[in-house]
Specification:
A hairpin with a 3-residue loop joins strand 2 and strand 3 (22-24). A 3-stranded antiparallel beta sheet has the order 1-2-3, with no helix packed on it. Helices cover 68% and strands 2% of the residues. It has 452 residues and is mainly α.
Length: 452
């Protein structure tokens, strides 16, 4: 992926040539500087943030046993997709993102479609991150000021910190953010277990009516499955992370550690919180142990929520930036064009995410819709196609059973991804309609307290 170019002049700094970022000289931006530990925490941050706070609600819809099985199934499927990112990147070092995969396999149409899906998905989820910060600030301040102001504050923080240029520097924030989320989720899980019951409502302690098996409608079940898919939807971001690793050969090590930790946290925390709270579980889950613990957990989680939003905005901004300047010296050199393109990308992404978060009614349901429509197709189908692209061209004659099993799995990933996309989108549309009929959605730029 990287080679050191010979020095023509003694005393001149060596030039590194990367298949994506081109020549990197001393004094320029070195994007290839993330170690395997930094890669691990970036992978965790790409997935764990908003998702873990929704798992108990998924269990309430599906029941504990089907919920755990769905989490494990989606974890296994996305783990294979994540692994394929590393394999494909090693074979095709010029690939930077999922859009490059689309161009390689499907031509210009694939490049544009997957690129647009990637950008839209992360921008919408970044907007959701802004709202999660406004919820935390409302919880901590007892709704001291207008919620729209909190969203503006979140957007300003998003622009400022998403403008950090490299994954290596972003990984420093990721350590803080991931640690805060894990501690916050662990705190509410322990508190709920010690409390042993849902929080009191008007002085009355309700029963924990947990269900081993739920009885949801098809639409509700698919909306819940889409939420799990969204919780593991960091897969397409792994291309960008792998592209900035110092040693991509350690990619699989980072993946194994991150996927294991995330799945254990999802299953353990989701099960414990739902077991003790039942249908009274809060969404986000940090409010499930009462008012005092809720403030404590949001206080701990707030830095993690900010880092999540920052990273979610950084990803589409970096994609746009690299696409604009790839192949030119301005990609890594500190020129005026470099800075205008980079800050313009982060500002545009932050602004669009802010407008979406503030202006669209029934936003939470809309995020589920975008996750199903755009998130699922960039986490499953392309990766089955990637394996077939690399392995089908040599023909099928004389292939061993193991090859056919891998091919069968690739076809399964494509078909399962198509089903989850269609069914999840349907479930999300039904949820949007039901939510709008029930409450009319939230008003644009609302001052109302969203910590409910």
């Amino acid at each position: 992926m990287e080679k050191e170019m010979p020095d023509d002049n003694i005393g001149k700094p060596p030039i590194l040539e990367d298949a994506v970022f081109g020549e990197i000289q001393e004094g320029g931006v070195n994007y290839r500087d993330v170690g395997w530990k930094g890669t691990t925490v970036l992978m965790m941050k790409a997935q764990m943030g908003l998702g873990v706070l929704s798992i108990p609600q998924v269990f309430d819809t599906l029941g504990i046993i089907p919920g755990i099985l769905i989490v494990l199934a989606i974890s296994g499927m996305t783990c294979w997709s994540n692994w394929m990112v590393g394999v494909f990147k090693m074979r095709h070092p010029e690939v930077y993102g999922i859009d490059d995969v689309g161009r390689k396999i499907f031509g210009r149409v694939g490049f544009e479609v997957l690129g647009a899906a990637y950008a839209l998905f992360w921008i919408f989820v970044g907007g959701s991150g802004m709202l999660s910060i406004s919820i935390a600030l409302n919880a901590l301040s007892n709704h001291a000021i207008c919620t729209a102001i909190y969203v503006i504050i979140a957007a300003a923080l998003g622009f400022a910190f998403s403008s950090i240029q490299t994954m290596a520097k972003m990984s420093l924030l990721a350590w803080i953010g991931t640690g805060c989320i894990i501690v916050a989720v662990s705190t509410v899980t322990i508190a709920v277990g010690v409390q042993g019951h849902p929080p009191a409502v008007d002085g009355v302690i309700p029963e924990a009516d947990y269900k081993l098996f739920g009885n949801p409608s098809f639409a509700d079940a698919m909306a819940a499955v889409s939420t799990v898919c969204l919780s593991y939807a960091g897969t397409p971001a792994f291309f960008h992370i792998a592209a900035e690793m110092r040693d991509p050969r350690l990619y699989t090590r980072s993946l194994a550690v991150s996927q294991t930790i995330i799945t254990v946290i999802y299953v353990v925390c989701g099960t414990v919180v739902y077991y003790y709270c039942g249908s009274h579980v809060a969404s986000p889950a940090l409010g499930s142990a009462g008012a005092v613990i809720k403030k404590v957990c949001y206080g701990i989680a707030l830095p993690g929520l900010i880092v999540s939003m920052v990273f979610l905005l950084h990803l589409p901004a970096k994609q746009i930036f690299v696409r604009m300047l790839r192949g030119s010296k301005h990609l890594t050199a500190h020129t005026l064009i470099h800075w205008v393109a980079w800050l313009g990308s982060t500002f545009a992404v932050s602004l669009v995410a802010y407008i979406i978060a503030s202006a669209i009614p029934v936003f939470s349901s809309l995020v589920s819709f975008v996750g199903a429509l755009f998130g699922t197709p960039i986490c499953f189908q392309p990766f089955g196609c990637m394996w077939l692209y690399d392995n089908w061209g040599s023909g099928t004659a004389g292939k061993p059973l193991s090859w056919w099993l891998k091919a069968g799995w690739s076809f399964f990933m494509i078909l399962a991804g198509c089903f989850l996309t269609i069914a999840g989108t349907y479930g999300s549309i039904v949820s949007i309609i039901d939510s709008y009929n029930a409450s009319g959605g939230s008003s644009a730029w609302s001052c109302a307290n969203n910590d409910v």
